[in-house]
Amino acid sequence: MAGKFKVGELIVYPTKGVGKIVGIERLGEEDFYIIELLEKDIQIKIPVERAGAMGVRRPVSPEKVKKVLSMLKNYRVSKVRNNWNKRQKIYREKLRTGKIEDTAEVFAELYYSSQRKQLSFGEKKLMEQVRSILLQELAVSSGSSVENIEEEFEKIIS
């Protein structure tokens, strides 16, 4: 069974959050990572060979956490695109890249847009999902609790 992650290793699944590899299982002709998500009582399976293409990666370094927090602090929304369907598609594409900077940018754009106008139900839901994923990774990467990171996060975006 070849793969870049080992059992017991923490990973970030871009659209789901932080998880732990709890096993590798062969199903038919393919090996699958069995991932237990930390914030939800859910196990998911993803093909070992496609994990990288799906944006699955290791949590970022503590130095990257500082850069992301700084980015959020200094972020300014550019022109808000008018059509929610188009914005949602762009946001989903950014989230699938697996890059924490893209995740932070999606959150920032939604959050700062919410300060200027009322978000739709879909926008609010996506903002909360992205916020949760971001907080999970920042906490794991900095060796802190989600609660501590959330306090720092709130100071930055307020």
Task: Chart the SSEs and their pairings.
Blueprint: E1 10-13, E2 17-27, E3 30-37, E4 43-47, H1 62-74, H2 84-96, H3 100-116, H4 121-142, H5 146-157
Antiparallel strand pairs: 1-2, 2-3, 3-4
Helix pairs in contact: 3-4, 4-5
Tell me what the structure shows.
The protein has 158 residues and is an alpha+beta fold. The protein folds into two domains: 10-50, Thrombin, subunit H (Beta Barrel); 62-157, CarD-like, C-terminal domain (Methane Monooxygenase Hydroxylase, Chain G, domain 1), CATH 1.20.58.1290. Helices cover 49% and strands 18% of the residues. The chain is built from five helices and four strands; from the N terminus they run E-E-E-E-H-H-H-H-H. Strands 1-2-3-4 form a four-stranded antiparallel β-sheet. A hairpin with a 3-residue loop joins strand 1 (10-13) and strand 2 (17-27). The longest helix is centred in the last third of the chain and has 22 residues, at 121-142. It is globular. It starts with 9 loop residues before the first strand and ends with a helix.
From the N-terminal CA to the C-terminal CA, the straight-line distance is 47 Å
Q: Got a strand count? A: 4
The biggest sheet amounts to: 4 strands, antiparallel
Secondary structure class reads alpha+beta
Calculate the mean pLDDT score and round it.
90
Q: Specify the CATH architecture of the largest domain.
A: Up-down Bundle
CATH topology of the largest domain: Methane Monooxygenase Hydroxylase, Chain G, domain 1
Any idea what the shape is?
A: globular
CATH class of the largest domain: Mainly Alpha
User: What is the H level of CATH, i.e. the homologous superfamily of the largest domain?
Assistant: CarD-like, C-terminal domain
Secondary structure: helix percent: 40-55%
Strand content: 15-25%
Q: In what order do the strands lie side by side in the largest sheet?
A: 1-2-3-4
